[in-house]
């Protein structure tokens, strides 16, 4: 089996608009930490110098949002008052079989900053000769990964408009992924379009579609250009099981039998 990594790295040295901190604990610091914790919680005594080389184990402490790095958005992320249920499901409540399914990738790299519509999706499906099936995982290759770690990653990419999102959901798809920061268009594009049109339908329509229909998004994917074919692979993107959370990180991969 061939495995292709479809994930981007969580890296505290990259530019992010929200706080991301990573504190690494050395093996020597780990010895002090462990012996102090044993003393406090278990009443056990051990001098750190009694350990081989005075070292125990390393550790890492991170502070970040569940929406940093490659992650899966749960239905509860989209709002608290969905029309299809009394309580939208959190990331730890979703069926696992949604996240190991046949996948297909659509090339939207020529669309540019803004939104792709139904016509873009239909044209690309016709080009690759694929008919999506219910529960397939749809991946959108926009080329945004090239700008990761820069402010442009958050302002220059292709999202979906509302009809395009519903077009995919009408096919029975439950998981839509993108290599961009968001499945919706960039914030500056959305606000500019709203100010020009006064149409509230342009305000984050892909996310707000989740208030009427239960589905998940994978955002901040990577490596979509490495897929040798636009279909004929499976996607594994199980989200981290975080209680009461609206999203969870995933190490998304494509699985190929050849």
Automatic annotation (TrEMBL):
InterPro entries: KFase/CYL (IPR007325), KFase_sf (IPR037175). Coiled coil: none annotated. It comes from the Bacteria. GO terms for molecular function: arylformamidase activity. Pfam families: Cyclase. GO terms for biological process: L-tryptophan catabolic process to kynurenine. This is Cyclase family protein.
């Amino acid at each position: 089996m061939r495995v292709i990594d479809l994930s981007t790295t969580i890296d505290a040295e990259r530019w992010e608009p929200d706080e991301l901190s990573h504190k690494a604990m050395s093996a020597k610091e780990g010895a002090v930490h462990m012996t102090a914790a044993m003393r406090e919680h278990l009443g056990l005594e051990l001098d750190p110098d009694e350990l081989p080389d005075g070292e125990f184990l390393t550790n890492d402490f991170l502070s970040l949002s569940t929406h940093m790095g490659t992650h899966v958005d749960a239905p509860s992320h989209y709002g608290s008052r969905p029309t299809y249920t009394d309580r939208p499901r959190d990331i730890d409540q979703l069926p696992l079989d949604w996240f190991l399914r046949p996948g297909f990738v659509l090339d939207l790299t020529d669309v540019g900053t803004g939104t792709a519509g139904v016509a873009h999706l239909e044209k690309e499906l016709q080009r690759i000769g694929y008919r999506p099936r219910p529960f397939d995982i749809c991946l959108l290759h926009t080329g945004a990964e090239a700008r990761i770690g820069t402010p442009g990653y958050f302002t220059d990419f292709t999202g979906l408009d509302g009809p395009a999102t519903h077009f995919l959901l009408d096919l029975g798809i439950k998981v839509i992924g993108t290599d961009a920061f968001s499945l919706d268009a960039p914030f500056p594009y959305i606000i500019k379009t709203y100010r020009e049109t006064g149409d509230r339908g342009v305000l984050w329509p892909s996310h707000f579609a989740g208030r009427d229909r239960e589905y998940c998004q994978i955002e901040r994917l990577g490596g979509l250009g490495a897929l040798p074919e636009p279909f004929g692979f499976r996607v594994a993107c199980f989200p981290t099981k975080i209680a009461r959370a609206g999203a969870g990180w995933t190490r998304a991969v494509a699985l190929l039998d050849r």
